[in-house]
Amino acid sequence: MKNEPQPAQDITQILPWLVIFRSFSLAFDTSKLLLAALGILTTATGWWVLSLIFTLGYDAKPPQWSATLYAKSANPWSTFKKDRETWNLMHQAAGVGGLYQSFELEDLVETEEELTTLKDANLNQNELGVGLKTSLLVNEGKISKERIDHVMTFLGTSKPKGLLTTWPWFEERGPNPYLLATGQSGIPWSVGRFWDWVIIQEVPVLIEPLVKVIRPALLLIQPEATFSQRLYFFFSLTWVIAVWSFFGGAISRIVVVQIARNENIGALGALKYARENMANFISAPLFCPMIAIFLFLVIMVFSLLGMIPVLGDIFISGLFWGVFMGLGLIMALVLVGLLGWPLMVATVSAEGLDSWESFSRGIQYLYTRAWNYIAYNLLAVSYGIIVVFFIGFMASFGVYLAKWSVASTPFIQSANRSPEYLFIYAPTSFGWRELLLQGAKVDGENIVVDGKVDQKAYRKYLGFDSETRSKKESLVWWNIIGAGLVAIWLGGFFLLVVGFGYSYFWCSATFIFLLLRKDLDNNEINELHIEDEEEDQFTSVLQKPESNS
User: Fold this and answer.
1) Nearest 10 degrees: CA dihedral of 303, 307, 311, 316?
2) CB of 60 within 8 A of CB of 545?
3) pLDDT tens digits for range 119-161
4) H/E stretch holding 540
5) Which burial class, exposed, middle or buried, applies to 249 when counting CB atoms under 10 A from its CB (0-12, 13-18, 19+)?
6) Does residue 518 have a pLDDT over 60?
7) Is the dihedral of CA 69, 73, 77, 80 positive or negative?
8) Using alpha carbons only, what angle is made at residue 63 by residues 60 and 68, rounded to the nearest 5 degrees?
9) Distance CA 266, CA 401 (A)
10) Is 90 in contact with 230 (CB distance < 8 Å)?
């Protein structure tokens, strides 16, 4: 008796985690890229509006120390330091005071005596004898070596700025992939440099939606934040969670339908599903900060009773401090639970559950399958480093070739019409401005030097430096208009390039949810909840060949 041949088994049934490698092909989809670009723009616009509201009343310059000005305070120096720290926090978050603020002595010293001593020493980072001055201060016992080293490390360096207000075209995302790959980025490679680039620059680009959530969350718990600043950070956190729960949910919905039905609902169908389930998409992850805030208020109410002498010391703070620690642990668990936010969104996309069930499912998968979650994410990130760099490289190479082709036009150089001027407003993110301004000169000076834009030459090129600008090589109004129109094209294309990273994030997050669901609930990866009214929305992605009868 012959054994009948068995049908070949799909390798993903043996190694289900291989489906994560489908994230690239699914992420590279027009509908998902458009949704991602729209989400990026919506996030930035909302944060910009919030910054306009909450920065009202802030001075353009940080508070300066004056014993007379703070004389009415019970502790003048402490009050000044608090004012300075809160101003710096708002500069870090919303860019108060402009983009160019550097650390001053007032930011770095701890006491009024330190400030007086260091100001009298007239320290300057660029001064040749500054090392001798600092050594003399240490030898005279006026300041410790640890303190002076700390001050000199940061003095004159730029303060972190505009974390919640920088538009996507100008965010720092590392060097340009094309310049990096061709050795033109101006960054010499050394031992360990690759891992620095991966961890510090490439991974944050891959998980940018999560980074956008973490930023306001970390600012929210800063000890120097005032009540109004905490409101600002809370609303910023709520906004980014709401925006990316909605658009991420739409992207995730397209993915699960493609996996389960091999069909495409498109951007409009995904937005329709996201709109109908908006409350569940948005409120599921918001349970994390809301529970934390409730527990925070509970602790705060009891701490008010703890202010009563004797009773507070012994019975409230003393006996019940273990309760406070327990509540703090629960707060930590739910806030760390934000790492499971993509799982909550994918739960609504795949199963149509309500917000509480989706929140519970995300927390359950995160903590009961923590090692699986970490392993799947490491795989997704490792693969993502390659594909996101590839997309960034190809996009950069493409715009560079377009510029190079125009620049190669016969007689264009002699006519002084080389196209570099068209890119003066190119995005600075991913080093696109450095890439496209290569070859541009003003008065014989290169505008791009060692992979970086020389700001002095750049301003002269724009015609802002009236004393030294060259009338022949500086730009005129019609050049500026042309460059502005090109910037619109570049800006739109750049959003799609950045949007690929977001699309990949949500595609891989959806696959990870489906894998965890299979591990924990034994559900097949292609199981999908479909509303009755959705059936007529689907458009086949792959047309099945007609059978010949």
Assistant:
1) 10
2) no
3) 777 766 566 556 666 777 777 677 778 888 887 888 888 888 9
4) strand 539-540
5) buried
6) yes
7) negative
8) 135
9) 32
10) no
The domains of the chain are located at 379-521
Three-state secondary-structure class, residue 539: strand
CB 423 within 8 Å of CB 453: no
Other beta carbons within 10 angstroms of residue 420's beta carbon come to 19
Across 187-196, 371-380, 519-528, which has the greatest mean pLDDT?
A: 371-380
Q: What is the distance between the alpha carbons of residues 328 and 332, in angstroms, rounded to a whole number? A: 6
Q: What is the DSSP code (8-state) at residue 340?
A: G
Answering whether pTM is above 0.90, one says: no
Task: State the CB neighbour count (10 A cutoff) for residue 475.
Answer: 16
Q: DSSP for 5-43? A: PPPPPPHHHHSGGGGGGGHHHHHS-HHHHHHHHHHHHHH
Distance CA 63, CA 83 (A): 7
How many Å apart are CA 328 and CA 330, to the nearest integer?
5
pLDDT at 22 over 50: yes
Could you tell me if 383 and 20 are in contact, meaning their C-beta atoms sit under 8 angstroms apart? Answer: yes
Burial group, residue 246, by CB count within 10 angstroms (0-12, 13-18, 19+): buried
Q: What is the DSSP-derived secondary structure letter of residue 445?
A: E
Tokens of 523: 């559900």
Q: Are 170 and 427 in contact (CB under 8 A)?
A: yes
CA torsion sign for 188, 191, 195, 196 is negative
Residues for the chain: how many in total? Answer: 549
State the amino acid at position 437 in one-letter form.
Answer: L
C-alpha distances (whole Å) from 527 to each of 163, 271, 349, 415 are 40, 21, 12, 64
Place of tokens 């600092």: 134
Query: Other C-beta atoms within 10 Å of 20: how many?
Result: 21
What lies within 8 Å, CB to CB, of 475 at 6+ separation is: 421, 424, 461, 462, 463, 483
Segment 470-484 mean pLDDT: 72
Orientation of helix 208-220 relative to helix 341-351, angle to 10°: 130
Q: Which has the closest alpha carbon to 349: 531, 148, 161?
A: 531
Tracing tokens 């806030």 back to the chain, one arrives at 335
